[in-house]
Amino acid sequence: MLVAQPCCKASKGSGTYSAGQGRNPPMLGELDLKTLGIALSLVTLSMTLLLSIAAWHAGSEKGLRHWAMGNFALMLGLLMNVNQDHIHHSLSVVLANGLMTLGIGVTWLGVRAFKGTSQPQAGPILAALLVMLLLWIFRFHFDSLTARLGIASIVLATMSLLCARELLIPAEQPLRTGYWLAGGVALFCGLGLTLRAIASLSSLSPTVAISDNPLQSATLLGAMVAQIGLASGFILMTHYRTAMALHRLSERDALTGTLNRRSLYEQALQILSKASETQLPVTLIMLDADHFKRINDEFGHQTGDAVLCHMVARIRQHLRADDLLGRYGGEEFILILPGLDTVSATQVAERIRLGLCNQPWHAEDTPVQLSISLGVACSDQQGYVFDILLGAADAALYQAKALGRNRVELARHPGTAPKDEMALRLLSQFRHNLDV
Ligand SMILES: Nc1nc2c(ncn2[C@@H]2O[C@H](COP(=O)(O)OP(=O)(O)OP(=O)(O)O)[C@@H](O)[C@H]2O)c(=O)[nH]1
C-alpha cells in the first residue's frame, strides 16, 4: 500500500518503468517494474473491494468506511502514478502523491474512529495539500527527482508511523492480534519509507533514473505485502471486536447488564472450584426486591424496569472487581463474593440493603420507595457446592420475606435442625398473597 513513487519519469531523459537490469540486485533486477506497478494496483483494487464489502455490512462499526475510502484514494493515486508515460505529471506525480497521502491519512483516521478517539479531520487533507504543493514546486519550478522522492517518502512514512503508533498498543485478546498485525505492517511501511527517504535525500545517485533505482522493485513488492497485511489486519480487528461484543452480549442480561443465569452459574463454579483448593471462603447472597409487583402496578412496567436498573447500579457501588452480580430471574439477583466469610458478607449485605432503602428512586417527581430482602450463605458453613449454597441462600431469603421483608437473613448451619422451614415458606407465601 505504501508505495512512494513520486515520479517514475524523472527529469528529461530519465527512465520510466522498465526492467532496470544491470544496476538492481540480480533478483530484484529481473523484475519488471511496470508489471510490478500493475500488480500492485490490482492488489490495491482487490483490497479496496474487500474493505468496501466489509464496510457495506459494517452497521454501526466505525473505521471500515474510512479504510475503504482511504484505500480507494490510494488506489487512484497508484493507478495515476504507474501511468506516467501516458498522463501529464501534474496528475501522475503531483495529484497521485496527494491522493496516496490522503489515502493513508484517511486510513489513520479510520484507526482512530475504530478506537473511538477524537478525529482531527483536516490533518490528512492538509498533509495531502502540502505534499502536492511541494511536489509541484520540485517538478515544475526546480525539477529535482531527489527532492520529490525524499518529500513523498517522508510524508508517507510519517503517516504510516502515525498509524503504527495508534495500533501498537496493549489491547484485550484476541483484538490485540488484529491491532498488532495491522500495526506491525504499518511500522514496516513506515521504516521502509524512511529508509527510502534517507537513501533518496543522501543523493546516492540523484541523476539515476527511477527505473534503475535498486529500491524501486523492493518498494513495490513491500507495498503489495503491506496492502494485503493491512487489509487483513483491519478485517481481523473488526471480526474480533464483533465476536467479543457478541460474547459479552451472550453472557449479560439485556435489561440490567448483570450476568445472566447461565454465565453466572459458569463463573460461580470456577470461583468455587478455585476457592475450595485454597480453602478461602466464598459467599452467595440471594436478593429480591420487595413488593415489586406494586411498583409495576402503580407506576407501570417501564418505571419498574428503570427501578431494576437503579437497584443494580446501587448494588454495584458496594462490590469489588472480582465479585459477581447476576440476574437469577425477574426481580431476583445473586451475588458471589469471593474471599468473604459469613461475618463480612453479612455486613456487605446490610450495607446494600440500607443503601437501597435509604435513597428512594424518583420517577419524575414522585419518590419510589424500594426495599430488598437478602439471604446469605457462606462456604465456611455450607461448603463449596453451588447448588447447596444457592438452596441455603434461597431458604434464608424466604425467611427474610416471612419475617417482614427489608432484612438480611443468614442461612442456617447445615448441622442445625431445619427450624420450621415449611412454616416459614407458608408464612412467606401467605404474606406474599396478601401483599403485606
Ligand atoms: N418491570 C419489570 N417487572 C418485572 C420484571 N421481571 C419481573 N417483573 C415483575 O416483578 C413482579 C414480581 O412480583 P412477585 O413475584 O409477586 O413479588 P413481589 O411483588 O416483589 O413480592 P415479594 O417478592 O413477596 O416482596 C411481577 O409483577 C413481575 O411482572 C422486569 O424485568 N421488569
Quick summary of this structure?
With 436 residues, the protein is α+β, with helices and mostly antiparallel strands. It has 15 helices and seven strands. Guanosine-5'-triphosphate binds at residues 255, 288-293, 296, 301, 304-305, 308, 330-331, 401, 405, 432.
What does this entry look like structurally?
This protein is of the alpha+beta class and 436 residues long. It folds into two domains: 26-250, Rhopdopsin 7-helix transmembrane proteins, CATH 1.20.1070; 261-434, Reverse transcriptase/Diguanylate cyclase domain (Alpha-Beta Plaits, 2-Layer Sandwich), CATH 3.30.70.270. 63% of the residues lie in helices and 8% in strands. It is built from 15 helices and seven strands. The chain has helices at 26-29, 33-56, 64-81, 89-115, 122-141, 145-167, 175-201, 214-250, 261-278, 292-299, 301-316, 342-358, 379-382, 386-402, 421-434, and strands spanning 282-289, 324-329, 332-338, 361-363, 366-368, 372-378, 408-410. A five-stranded mixed sheet has the order 2-3-1-6-7. A two-stranded antiparallel ribbon has the order 4-5. A hairpin with a 2-residue loop joins strand 2 and strand 3 (332-338). Helix 2 (33-56) packs antiparallel against helix 3 (64-81), helix 3 (64-81) runs antiparallel to helix 4 (89-115) and helix 7 (175-201) packs antiparallel against helix 8. It is elongated. Guanosine-5'-triphosphate binds at residues 255, 288-293, 296, 301, 304-305, 308, 330-331, 401, 405, 432. The chain crosses the membrane at residues 36-56, 90-111, 123-142, 148-168, 180-199, 219-240. One of its GO terms (biological process) is cell adhesion involved in single-species biofilm formation. Its cofactor is Mg(2+).
